[in-house]
Structures are given as C-alpha cells and as structure tokens.
Amino acid sequence: VQLVESGGGLVQAGGSLRLSCTASGSGFIIRAMGWYRQAPGKQRELVAGVTSGGTTNYAASVKGRFTISRDSAKNTVALQMDSLKPEDTAVYYCNAEAGSTSYGFRNYWGQGTQVTVSS
User: Fold this and answer.
1) According to the model, what pLDDT value does residue 89 have?
2) Backbone angles phi, psi at 86, to 5 degrees
3) CA 114 to chain centre
4) Is the dihedral of CA 66, 21, 88, 82 positive or negative?
5) DSSP character string of 53-104
6) Burial zone of 44 (CB within 10 Å; 0-12 exposed, 13-18 middle, 19+ buried)
7) Which of 29, 49, 80, 111 pairs as cysteine with 67 (C-beta 3.0–4.6 A)?
8) Which region, left, alpha or beta, applies to residue 112 given φ > 0 means left and ψ of -120 to 50 means alpha?
9) pLDDT tops 90 at residue 77
10) How far apart are CA 31 and CA 14, in angstroms?
11) pLDDT of residue 102
12) Neighbours of 80 (CB within 10 A)
C-alpha cells in the first residue's frame, strides 16, 4: 500500500489549507485512515482519524477547526484545516491501517507534507 499526500504549503494565521491523501495498491482493505503531524523537536501526534464506518476523532487542539473526510470508494482521505494557527506548523503525515484477512493488517505512512503557518 502506498500513500501519496498533497496540499501542504505556507499560509498566514487564520487561513485555510486542504490536505489530501490517496492510497494505492492491490488486494488490500483499509480500516482506519488518519492524519498525524510532527513539529520540530516534538513527537508525532494524531491530528484526526476516521474509521471505515465513518466515525471521526480529533485532537483537542484542532477540534472545531479541522475536518477529516474519507471517500472509501476512492481510497482517499482529506483534512480541511481552517483558522490555522502558527502552532499548527508541522509535517503532516497520512496514515492508513490496511492489509488483508489472509496476511494481517499494519500501519502505512505517507511521505509527509509540510504545513507552515506564519503569524
């Protein structure tokens, strides 16, 4: 399974960005998908996740500002980020729990996309 992200960039505080991620490969099932981020000197943290059933969860710091959405038919997940703050600056990584009933499931990661919010 390969995850390819797009949509990062530089934006002023209060602005918006939309990240997208597409999973490709064959013979796999995707359970949960999500977005993580890692700022310099900090650990990677969950930003938002969505299950195969559509249940979403958000980090407290982004709740009300970010929205995660998923298109299971296209194996894509998006993160709409509004009211961005300088503390949202980080590398954002797409994550998918994927695999098969025969070979098991594991976590896959995208290459990361930089989001920089200027004050």
Assistant:
1) 98
2) -55, -30
3) 12
4) negative
5) T--EEE-TTTTTTEEEEEETTTTEEEEEE-S--GGG-EEEEEEEEEEETTTE
6) middle
7) 80
8) left
9) yes
10) 33
11) 92
12) 16
